[in-house]
Write a sequence for this structure.
């Protein structure tokens, strides 16, 4: 799906949900959609300043908070970065595979992992309110470059 179509879909969802999709939120959404992989708030700020020269860190963080709340992006906690979500129209389980060598982030949607995690939490009397499952390692390409690492 093109960035323009994703933007149109996000606009429709915001309208249905009764939330404001401000120009700044649109800009950050578009920057995230165009970026492949995880990106930090300060990298986004540098790019946003090309569109909105007066943008400051709180501008980006407020927009990211909105995008997170609407399910348009995910936070990669261990990298303190953000990842655009292509599946934002639906609620879905999410697990991340993160390459420590090249920075590739692969988003998985495995309901079995999600259920196993939830069941383990319940066995321990734990009620999950927020979930982030991240695994670090080396992607296929990086492993092929240096197979013994």
């Amino acid at each position: 799906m093109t960035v323009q179509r994703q933007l149109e879909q996000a606009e429709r969802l915001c309208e249905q949900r009764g939330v404001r999709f401000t120009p700044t939120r649109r800009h950050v959404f578009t920057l995230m959609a165009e970026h492949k992989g995880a990106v930090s708030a300060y990298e986004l700020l540098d790019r946003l300043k090309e569109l909105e020269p007066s943008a400051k860190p709180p501008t980006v963080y407020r927009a990211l908070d909105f995008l997170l709340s609407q399910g348009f992006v995910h936070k990669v906690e261990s990298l303190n970065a953000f990842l655009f979500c292509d599946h934002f129209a639906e609620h879905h389980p999410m697990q991340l595979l993160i390459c420590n060598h090249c920075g590739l982030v692969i988003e998985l949607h495995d309901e079995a992992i999600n259920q196993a995690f939830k069941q383990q939490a319940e066995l321990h009397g734990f009620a999950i309110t927020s979930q982030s499952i991240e695994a670090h390692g080396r992607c296929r390409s990086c492993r092929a470059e240096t197979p013994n690492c």
Notes: The CA atoms of residues 73 and 85 lie 5 Å apart. The longest strand covers residues 95-99. The two ends are 36 Å apart (CA to CA). The chain has six helices and five strands.
